[in-house]
Amino acid sequence: MKVTNMEMNEKRLGAIFYHQAQGMMADSLLMNIADRLREQGLKLAGAVQLNTNELDRCRCDMSMRDLSTGKIIEISQYRGPQARGCRLDQQALEETVGLVRQAVDHGADFLIVNKFGKREAVGHGFRQVIEAAIARDIPVLLSVGPETVNDWREYTGDLAKELPHDLEAVLAWCGRVSSHPRTDAISLDNKASFEISASTTP
Question: Which of 15, 75, 143, 164 would be 115's cystine partner, CB 3.0–4.6 Å?
Answer without folding.
Answer: 143
